[in-house]
Amino acid sequence: MSISENINNDLKSAMKAHDKIALTVIRMVKTDLMNEKIKLGHDLSEDEELTVISREVKQHKESIDDFKSANRDDLVSAQEAEMKVLEKYAPKQLSKDEVDKIVSETIKSVGASNMSDFGKVMGAVMPKLKGKADGSIVNQSVKGYLK
Are 112 and 146 a contacting pair, CB within 8 Å? Predict the structure, then answer.
C-alpha cells in the first residue's frame, strides 16, 4: 500500500474517531503532497512523497526546539503529539552507527582525506541517506571522519 493510500485510510479513521490532532496533521500532509504534485507537474513517486514527509518532520523538530528554548511547554506538547502522527509515515531513521558506516564507506570510495573534501563527500553521501538520516547528524559524522 502506498503512502497516499495509507494517508487516505488514516484520514477516514481519524474522522470516524474524531481525532482532531491526527485529522489536522493528515490534512496538512495531504495538502503538502498535493502542492508538491502541482509544483512538479506529475504524480509523486514514493521517494518524492517521503521527501515531503521528511521535510514536515524536520520542520516539526525545529519548532519543538524553538518552543523549548522559549519555555512554551504548551506548544511543545502540541508539536510532539503531531510528530507522533507524522512519524507513522516517515521512513525509519538510521542510527548514528549506521550513518557512520555509510559515511566511512563513502569517504573511502570518493578518496577524501581532509576537510577540503567535505563538499565532495556530502554530495556523495546525502543521496544515499536522503530521508533516512538527519542532515546535521550526517554533517557531524563527515566532519568527524575528515578531521
Answer: yes
